[in-house]
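Annotated sample (chain length 400).
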Amino acid sequence: MKKICLTVVGLYLGLLTAFSQTIPKDSTAYKSRKLKLEEVNLVSSYYQQDGDHAAVTGGIGSQHLTNISGSIDLKLSKRDRKDRKHSFVLDVGVDHFTSASTDKIDPATISSASRNDTRIYPSLNWSVESEKKGTTVGLGAYYSRECDYFAHGASVNFAAKTKDRSGEFSINAQVYLDNVKLIRPIELRDGKPIPGDADNNGYAPRNSFSTSWSYAQIINQRLQVMFLMDLVYQQGYLGLPFHRVYLNDNSVHIEHLPDRRFKLPLGFRANYFAGDKLIIRSFYRYYQDDWGLKAHTAELETAIKLSPFFSVTPFYRFYTQQATDYFAPYQAHTAADQYFTSNYDQSSFNSHLFGAGVRLAPPKGILGNSHVNMIEVRYGHYTRTNNLSSNIVSINWRFK
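Output written by the structure step:
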């Protein structure tokens, strides 16, 4: 881990040198057309959870999981001859996790394929903003890979401000094309094709298409609001082949779910600036899909500025959902059921997430280093009424 951190810091310093430039003393009307490095963010986190409803073992068994993740994103920009700002964001993330439940895919082995896994997910985004017109257009490309699936995707987005610049409408369209490796539980490896594996090659496609719509409005100097709506359509193999389902006759099967799903989340945000030292951020979302799942999310976060460069951000989120039509616990499904899952992520439950963050951004930089201008540490504790709990700690360094 130390070698990785030193490599990342070295990469940052190299880029900073490569893109630095001399600015004329009289720069009031000067706008550089050269590509420059605006900022670098290093984010790392540690996540740990425990529970007793593992989907791999049919809704019973340990859900213990740990995940260590790290990412670096580089933000660069330049201006063209029409004085439009081009922004480029390169992000590379790596997750490494260990899972007690996936080790039960083949309990006879010392460790099954998914016991320890690493996911790598780079992305690249470009946008061009015309300040005169108040418009922004962008494109993105994404890739992700781990032992049992790989995915790639693309996005296009457009945003336009109102004439008085107090409101902004934006739309983002995304497509993800995934391939799921069909790893079955050891006792169900009978050589028969799994639904969705049309070519019987051990993989099945899972494609997602979505559009996100939003409108942000400044009400006054203190209040800003935003309305959000997503339209999501998924098709292909939407379950996981190593999720067992035990029927009431004690027979075991592979999780079987419909090959299509339509999702509709609707959201609302409001930020209130109560003064120079207090910002209140609120969020509500309603969600429903054609699998019968309905959910509500309510979140509140306050940013309390204790000094010009030090702030604390306590937060709380409440979530409640109604189970999908296809969920039932261990040995509750019958042979008459067309679709079935014992994955408790599809069950009815309430959850609570609460925690706080601290942010330090001194004007002269961290420890007097002007290039390291911000550090933020956040902690969150999560509990769910079906016996799942977790903790996460994250740290974000920002370099300028």
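Annotation: The first helix runs from residue 2 to 19.
Annotation: Residues 1-28, 110-114 have pLDDT under 50 and may be disordered.
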